[in-house]
Amino acid sequence: MTYPPLRDYGIIGNDDRCALVSRRGSIDWCCFPHLESPSVFARLLDADRGGHFAVRPTDPHESSHRYVDRTNVLETTFETTSGQATVVDFMPIRADGRESSESTQQAIYRRLECDRGTVDLELEFAPRFDYARTDPTLERVENGVLATAGEDGVDADSADPEQLFLYTGDALDDALEFRASETNTEATVSLKAGDSCWTGVQYGATEPLASVDHQQALDETKRYWREWLSHRDGAPESMPERWHEMVIRSELALKVLIHHETGAIPAAATTSVPEAIGEPRTWDYRYNWIRDAKFTVQALHDTGHEQEAREYFEWFSDIAQTDPAEINPVYGLHGDTGDALSEQTLEHLEGYRETGPVRIGNAAAPQQQLDVYGTIVQAVYETIQFDSEAMVTNEEWDALCDIVKYVCEHWDERDAGIWEFRDERRHFLHSKLLCWVALDRGIALATENDLEAPLETWREERDAVREAIEARGYSERASSFTQHFESDEALDATALLLPIYEFLPPEDDRVQATIDAVIDRLTTDDGLVVRFVDSDIRRDEEKAFFLCSFWLIDALVLSNRLEQAREYFENVLERASPLGLYSEKIDPENDQLLGNFPQAFSHLGLLNSVTYLARALESDGDVTPADFDPGNVETLFRRSESSES
């Protein structure tokens, strides 16, 4: 089997689990019971060994897919010479306000329906527990098949062998056939126009999938997603309809990734999808990186999702109360650190498109990344400006003071940087910028909220960081701020954040020169931005990074270069998948999506760029950074009065 391109995948999910479904009708990636748990289907990472759950016509066919309007319910349509059939995929979630049980949500439902003519659909169920490290045994049971993991495969929550139930009901049950290996099962069902039947998988037991009203579950799930989106008014008049559609899809993509218990947001739904085919830069992104807290808070508030923003704020507020020396750049979605995130290589899996290694865990977790302190303080500062109900308790303020004190004592050290270079430590510009942010926003929090702090010391250190950045971070030779203090040539897209964090005004000659240098040396004609070039740390980047492309758009808007910003934004929109999803990176030569998928921070970048552009259009393009301060603007979408009742 060949590997489908990432563009061919859609995501379904609920609360803190999800699955990738290909346009071929195959579920090729799914982890139970949680997103960061071991996989039960992993054909995404090994076409032969990984495991899958496929439904497709037996005859030659064409296929397409789409989301049911304003939901994360996915429809895949198959066309054959004899007819048309549609497979509807979703993970159930309630819309009536009642809590769904974990067992209810640890399931995937699939409705098979013939739209016209006749279609024979074949089902193939090939579960592989624990990243395909154990072979299952399959047993015929009432209403389907029960797969049980081998001796080494246990449910981490119960220490019992893992189980996955395949529901077949009446229509498929009689057609089930086991392969000789007894690790796969198949069935074929013949449907004529108007016929439908249900199948699906339930993790851990046969119930409730075997006995619920499946159509009611589908209706409730659709209603849940639509009601979640409806808690706001329509889009601003300045926003084109296409932008609005992409905003909705980005919101839904983020919501399906947000962990409902902790508010944490993983960087992506997958592990080890390579940054470039044939190169070993493969990482596990099913964890929360706190360095992007500012952009997360901004995007959630700008789209009117105050509850999710508040839960996220509470999540990193808890982290902020850790000893600053022990704050990690990466956390598990349940707050895990240490051994829980230790990196392992799965040698038995070949990797997506035969590009390994396949990794679980992430060795970046214990790195020193000085930027995390600035993002924490910035996120607290921005949340308070956005949310009138948010406040800093005495305990939280003491913790923030400890963070700022730590920055005072350590800002001039080398670190691994935002791109997490594993063997190099440098004075990275981005790390210094975020240290300045920690001090500047700490001072603002203290002075604006009458909080006690050693302001004289903080101001002295803030000035020292500024002096270092301006003296050692800008290169006359490159006419740009550079990647790190030791280089006069290395150019990095993170320099675009200088005006966004308001370190310098956009009209500053050095800022404009940096933007021009980024466009000249890091950007394609279509506005796709690579992360860095001419670095002595690693060879030049060739694949574009979506988040950096959105940073460039934001910096151009702040610079009142609106026509160029809008052109680039439209071009980046065209690079989304047919379903409106983004990965981490893209090959500018052929538009191949690369990196883990879907990527939360790419969608956050889109939401923030829409916000910048929409406000600039409403102001006829004449804006200043102050126009985007949270305290001075309305959110992009306000909650509607009807949703408050």
TrEMBL record:
One protein family per Pfam: TREH_N
- A biological process from GO: carbohydrate metabolic process
| InterPro entries (UniProt xref) | 6-hairpin_glycosidase_sf (IPR008928), 6hp_glycosidase-like_sf (IPR012341), GH15-like (IPR011613), Trehalase-like_N (IPR045582)
The segment(s) forming the Trehalase-like N-terminal domain are 5-152
Q: Which GO terms describe its molecular function?
A: hydrolase activity, hydrolyzing O-glycosyl compounds
**Which chain regions cross the lipid bilayer?**
none
Q: Which domain of life is it from?
A: Archaea
User: What residue stretches are annotated with the GH15-like domain?
Assistant: 244-609
Q: Which Gene3D superfamilies match?
A: 1.50.10.10
Q: Which family does it belong to?
A: Belongs to the glycosyl hydrolase 15 family.
Instruction: Name it.
Output: Glucoamylase (Glucan-1,4-alpha-glucosidase), GH15 family
Annotated source species: Natronorubrum sediminis
